[in-house]
Design a protein that fits this description.
The protein folds into 5 domains: 2-147, Methyltransferase, Cobalt-precorrin-4 Transmethylase, Domain 2 (2-Layer Sandwich), CATH 3.30.950.30; 152-226, no CATH class; 237-401, 2-Layer Sandwich (Heat Shock Protein 90), CATH 3.30.565.60; 413-491, Arc Repressor Mutant, subunit A (Orthogonal Bundle); 508-605, Arc Repressor Mutant, subunit A, CATH 1.10.10. It has 21 helices and 25 strands. The protein is globular and about 90 Å long.
Length: 609
């Protein structure tokens, strides 16, 4: 269970001392985790400069009782997201004190905002890398808007009518609809009836008012009407091609709301799809009416990606729809936050849409999947060309979601050859996941657990093991901690190539002073035999365990995670209770004494100088 403290980077982690009972800021963190990506709160731990201080809490059962009493008090917290299995009391080996682990899930869109007290505008928090912050009023209002069962684009626009629509857009839409499904019964309807069935016109039964909806205006409206103060004054559409190598050239082509075309979503969709298709190896096919057909997986992926941004955008947000096309990638971003967690999106099969009428309109054209498989089409389309897996990025203040479609090979040969030359024979011994991590770090400048989750079906814990293993092998170096940890290729000065050895499989050499010492990279059978008494019993005498640890570190530097694996103990507990005292006693020494908290820190018995 305590492995999460050292291995799992896929969620936020917050440590709180809780020495005087439940900390006040615990609830701010609860709100922040719930309104962002979820996370884990540990009570009884303090973050030190070089290690975690797992001092534990007294009377953990009472703290748990106090926690449940508070979280179920609607005057204190508006919503309890936790079930019994999400709160656990964790024993500390050799100590009467205990830790408390609280796993806070991401709240669903109908549950946000999760706030403290009775005023959501004074008690709603979100999380970023700097910690918990109080939300602004506009952020809270957007959470309430996403919570509504009524889609954002169904809003009735009082005072708008047929004169605000671009008749040519409706005509073109009808033609494209007909070319795809010529026998569809809606095609026999008048324009007004068709618009109503699509959700672009509706009648409010409670008030008797009827007229254009936001969806109808966005899809078919005239640009001037769309940007009116009563509609979407911040409406913006922008497509930019950045294909020149000349830094003085900002873009080689641009499509924006410049008055040269009728700036609605349908016209933007048609024009952008033409531009996105240009330069692709596989051209669009055409149907009998002359319209482009997305017959290849790549074209399907592009259509799904573009429409995904148009139907999920929060048009009350900042920045509008922005598409940047570079020589090696396409970036599609829209205002708003993810309505599902990243894990749910990557799994597929679940659909949450901010603008359901817009989604219906695009579905009539054969795009904009409703069954939650749109991301699968995008990923499979990119995989068909062996391109790098699409990446999803979410930023706050302003709230935006970006889909990055890289048109670079998953394992481009020049990159692989460069890494092989850089790391020597050790590179040829790496597994596929390890190679992928290094290639990603080289191509994208860094790699993280979250990025590799988008490219692999491996569990986040296994991904972290891969990344930390590459740190231990001297190929990656980390920066940041926890969820914010990023890994980059080691600099030239710190690069150590693994050396072949007939004496120890998968080990590397590390030079200290005038002598050479092995840096263990795996737990050998000999190490397991030495550690067997500790592996067999959790109640082994401390002096005996110390002796075993010193023996394991005799003649070789052994990293923390390997020692923990060898003796079957939690890594942080082992370091705090045994290894750090052994270093202070002079029985062990550090591989990097000037940087004690390095992830690739290792220990050597002092007698081996």
């Amino acid at each position: 269970m305590l492995q999460d403290l050292t291995l799992y980077e896929g969620v936020d982690v917050e440590f709180k001392a809780a020495k005087g009972g439940l900390p006040r800021d615990l609830w701010e963190t609860y709100s922040a985790f719930a309104n962002t990506d979820g996370g884990t709160i540990w009570l009884g731990i303090t973050q030190g400069e070089t290690a975690l201080d797992m001092h534990g809490v007294e009377n953990a059962e009472k703290l748990v009782s106090d926690f449940w009493n508070t979280i179920n008090n609607r005057g204190k917290v508006c919503l309890n997201l936790l079930t019994n299995d999400l709160l656990e009391i964790v024993p500390i080996e050799g100590s009467p004190r205990k830790l408390i682990r609280i796993r806070v899930p991401r709240a669903g869109r109908r549950e946000r905002p999760v706030f403290l007290g009775s005023d959501p505008f004074r008690g709603t928090y979100r999380r970023n890398f700097e910690g918990d912050y109080l939300c602004r009023d506009d952020e809270v209002r957007r959470m309430f808007a996403d919570q509504s069962e009524e889609p954002a684009d169904s809003r009735l626009l009082i005072g708008f009518g047929w004169d605000d629509l671009h008749s040519e857009s409706i005509k073109q839409f009808r033609n494209r609809f007909s070319s795809r499904a010529s026998e569809h019964p809606w095609l026999a309807e008048s324009d007004s009836a068709l618009l109503e069935k699509l959700g672009g016109w509706r009648r409010d039964r409670s008030t008797g008012q009827e007229g254009l909806t936001l969806a109808g205006l966005l899809m078919f409206g005239r640009g001037q009407a769309i940007t009116a103060a009563e509609a979407v004054p911040g409406f913006q559409l922008d497509y930019r091609e950045r294909l020149s190598d000349d830094p003085a050239v900002r873009w080689t082509d641009r499509l924006t709301l410049d008055g040269m075309w009728e700036g609605n979503l349908f016209q933007f969709y048609q024009r952008v799809m033409v531009r996105l298709a240009e330069g692709l190896r596989t051209p669009f096919q055409r149907d009998q009416a002359g319209y482009r057909k997305a017959e290849t997986p790549v074209h399907e992926a592009l259509q799904e990606a573009l429409v995904n941004a148009l139907v999920h955008a929060d048009y009350s947000g900042q920045g509008g729809i922005v598409i940047d096309r570079f020589a090696d990638r396409i970036e599609i971003s829209n205002p708003g936050t993810l309505l599902l967690s990243r894990e749910q999106i990557l799994r597929g099969g679940v659909s949450e849409c901010r603008n359901k009428s817009l989604q219906r309109m695009f579905q009539m054209l054969g795009v904009g999947d409703k069954a939650g498989s749109g991301i699968d089409k995008i990923r499979s389309g990119w995989a068909s060309q062996h391109w790098r897996s699409p990446g999803i990025q979410e930023t706050l203040r302003p709230d935006r979601v970006m889909l990055v479609l890289s048109m670079v090979s998953m394992l481009p040969q020049p990159t692989v050859d460069g890494l092989r030359q850089r790391f020597g024979p050790a590179f040829g011994k790496l597994k596929v996941d390890e190679v992928q991590a290094l290639v990603t770090a080289d191509l994208e400048g860094e790699v993280s657990n979250q990025r590799l989750q988008e490219m692999s079906s491996s569990h986040p814990v296994d991904i972290t093991k891969v990344l930390q293993g590459l740190v231990r092998k001297g190929m990656l170096e980390p920066s940041g901690t926890g969820r914010g940890t990023r890994y980059r290729l080691v600099s030239g000065d710190s690069l150590h190539k693994a050396e072949d050895s007939s004496h120890k499989d998968s080990d590397s050499l590390h030079k200290t002073g005038d002598s050479l010492h092995w840096v263990a990279t795996t737990v050998t059978d000999e190490m397991r035999a030495t550690a067997e008494p500790a592996r067999q019993s959790s109640r082994i005498a401390p002096a005996k365990l110390e002796q075993i640890l010193v023996s394991l570190c005799s003649g070789q530097f052994v990293p923390l995670d390997l020692l923990a694996e060898a003796v079957n103990r939690n890594a942080d507990g082992l370091r705090n209770r045994y290894l750090t005292p052994l270093v202070r006693q002079g029985r062990l020494r550090l591989r990097f004494p000037d940087r004690k908290n390095r992830p690739d820190q290792a220990y050597l018995a002092v007698g081996d100088k």
